[in-house]
């Protein structure tokens, strides 16, 4: 079982919001992602998608977008992004997903010997877009991430690894500690996958190792519309 990741697909099958208006990286980007996906992924593998999945405003329209991924191999695991306005009731989202698709919201799923925790997160203190009114949401999202990590603890066996799939970066551009990074460290998280950042002016590295944890930025325009390899684990369900 190999694990790959990508985020911020911003799909719009209705073509109500084409992404190519944001530059050359977005021209035919979904076709490029699909081609790379087909080349790399087998039925035994997992692809993590870190939010901003669809521009849809309602669940039915979002499912139309998500269904375009059905022909692609592997299990698909999602979390909500800040633009996923269609994502409201997690029970309705899960009931609407095709087979082999998994939505995480402040909880976790075990695949092989990897437990994937999922939560949206939020911008952190010291980020350019962090305002005082963000503090309440930030603290709430910290508690939601804690719930996800506690759920992982309950199902973790001795040799399992914990990964976290979130949408927002867990640290600011200086990579200072945050309440998110402190949680990752206290729960023994191995890898963190996130997105949200876009454009050539994003001051971010695609991989950062901080206090023993590997952090992967997987926004599709920043990774040339290719899946990022995260790990390979021998044990499968």
Task: Please specify the SSE layout and strand pairing.
Elements: E1 2-6, H1 29-40, E2 46-49, H2 59-66, E3 75-78, H3 90-96, E4 101-103, E5 107-111, E6 114-118, H4 134-155, E7 161-165, H5 179-186, E8 191-194, E9 207-210, E10 213-217, E11 228-232
Parallel strand pairs: 1-2, 2-3, 3-4, 6-7, 7-8, 8-10
Antiparallel strand pairs: 1-11, 5-6, 9-10
Q: Within the largest sheet, what's the order of strands? A: 5-6-7-8-10-9
- Main structural class: alpha/beta
Uncertain segments are: none
**CATH domain fold name:** Purple Acid Phosphatase, chain A, domain 2
CATH architecture: 4-Layer Sandwich
Could you give the count of β-strands? 11
What is the chains' assembly state? single chain
Distance between the termini: 9 Å
Q: How many structural domains?
A: 1
Please write the string of helix (H) and strand (E) elements: EHEHEHEEEHEHEEEE
CATH class descriptor name: Alpha Beta
pLDDT averaged over residues: 93
As a percent range, the share of helical residues equals 10-25%
Describe the main β-sheet briefly.
6 strands, mixed
The CATH homologous superfamily is called Metallo-dependent phosphatases
Q: Work out the radius of gyration.
A: 17 Å
Large-scale geometry: globular
Count of individual helical segments: 5
Strand content: 15-25%
